[in-house]
Design brief:
mainly alpha; 2 domains; globular
Length: about 375
Amino acid sequence: MVASQVESREFLFQLFDVLDTGALASRDRYQEHSRSSLGAVVETFSRLSAGRSSAGDERAEALAGDSVGVVPEVILTLGNALYESAGQQSRLFRTRSEDLVAAPMAASVSAWQDYRALLEKLEAADLDAPQAADLRGRLLVAKSRSEAALAMGLYGASLAEDVQSHPEAERRQNSERLLAFLEPLIAWWPRQAAWLTSVSLGKAGDTSRIPDPGETSRLAREFLGQRVWQHQSHGLQLFLQSLQKDLEAASTQDTQQWALSLSETLQRAVKVTQGLGQGLQDGAEDRVLANASRYLHLFGEMLAGWMWLQQANAAARKLAEAAPGEESFYRGKLHAARYFFHWTLPEVAQDLVLLQNQDTTCLDMQANWF
């Protein structure tokens, strides 16, 4: 299967099976569109980025001129990321969420394309060999990280779309507050995922994807010190409420088990958050924020877990009706979700312990002791 077809299938799944972007066609702003026409735009972007454009594909380039409002924010965001990943120095479109999701999305798309490019070079027989289990493990790291990062950026853009065009005022406000809460996570986690994808693919020498430690620290302190508590923690409450819907939507034995794991982690994280909030009220800001990066990591992994639960729920639904040629795609999604919930999510246990104890090891270290 050529690269553009693989891209289209991945992006169409995330946009229409997970996020239900096709439903936007019912809004006044997109009344000229249908689910199929929006899907055609996504496929066009994939062909353009792969260098397989045709004369008819020039209409996608033309969108950049004066029709930005015709295509939903989430699709334009993907188009920009694909354009940048193809080596362009500028973006095709101006989007409302550009400052938040543009750079993380471009990094996510590039990392995912690196992962797919390596797969194209590998023989299936070699990958299936028992001695290749370690290689399969490294590829699972790349798949689970890069595809969660893609989902995270697209979800952020979908929230930005709801802020602008959802017909209900309450939904617009809730989307704005949830997006504000998630902003530090969306700005940091996909870039971290892109770096970890590079390492898993044997490209550790590519230092361009290493997250800036100073920026990570700033985002962490802003997240724990401000975003969690804004509007009486309404953003955090919306995060929990939105996630709860997908926990309840789990319908298979596997997805229900993964939902339970994520739910248990969330409950512990809420309890830890309450303790940290009390510490801030008591004036122990230095002690609480000393481990802010661990808190950012904790919530980033839970957000990634949510993205995988959404994908797993959608894949389970689609698998039940899939044609034989489509089964592998959905089984791959479910197996990557299994990897995340069995191998990655349990690692936040250390974050929970350090944060619950408000550990001061790093805070207590003195400069002249180094």
